[in-house]
Amino acid sequence: MTRWTTLCIAVFLLIGVSQFSTEASAPARREPDAASRACLACHPTAQPVLSGPMAMRSSERAFAHRAFGVEEGDRFFSASCSGCHVTGCTSCHDGAIHPTSRPSNHACLRCHRGYSAGWEYEGKAPREDHSRYQRGARSQGEPFLKMLPDVHFEREMLCADCHPMSSLHVGGRAKSCVDCHPLPSASSPEHAIPAHMNGMQCVSCHAAWAPQEYGTFLVRASTDEQREAFAPLRTWGAWSKSAQLKRQDPPPLGVDVTGRVAPIRPRFVLLVTDASRGWENHPVAAEWRAFTPHTVRRGSVACGGCHDNPRRFLLEADADRIYLPGKDGIGLKSWWNREGQSVVNGAFLPEERYERMNTKSPEYAREVVKQWQNLLNHAAPRSGR
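and the corresponding structure tokens:
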């Protein structure tokens, strides 16, 4: 083997490793601008926000690297992902010289809109990309489908009530349900089951719906004819973007990093068409993410929403699937088939765990009966939790 061949192999391996690295080549902190330096003189505890995830965007940059490789990923990130997120104190505080209150929801939803977590809090779901659906009410210039808002929004709570400044630091966390609701009422049959209380996130049952996008397609137009054909689509830098399917129903369930059952949705099942590379619907990412839908309602799903419901856990039989992208030459059997896909901050629910939860024990039978009794007894008080 020649030295030149060895060098080529080494470079190839280096590129391959970097393409799937989960670490982003981003600076460790953002230097504050002049306006922010004036703020930090009196509010030094705000400094970690400028080094936190909303400012550094490390997760988004790492995703772009995994999908496109480092060099192309950085170009994609700069053109498509850097328009939002925090660049200084005035990004959230509306440019006021000295704001006297926490940011309004509008300040958050300027960036947290569309498919990004946040819009659904006010009952807004992204519409399908086809021009026939680009109508009706609009927010930040984008049309949305009216859905049920979060019960906390109906109580006029701000985003900052659950997402204080400390939650925007590296390693920070928002308030959880049990921070405000530490003792869920045991009068609810669902709350009386230890496996529910110890093995599930609250939003697994209490999220009424969540926006989901299956099959995100990016096309790089290379001719005038292609540019004209794709002109109606939204752009991400040099790319035109569309999605095959958007849904607004209870999301699938998987497992988060704590091992609890939690909602999951595609971060992006991303397919790219780029004639310069010979790519046509080439899959570059098939990543799901455990997340918290901001659509909390007092009610919960019935037992059949999870038990004996393989579709909810991406375990549906192939013969029962409606969407079969594999038959169109796309490298996935189904958007809901686990093969070739992953959950980046958790996992799909193990099949043996799904089998265990469908065991019809005497305890399970008793709680199912209680649930139906509660539904039929209209005079019974509703759970306050």
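(Above: one complete record from the training split.) The chain has a mean pLDDT of 83.
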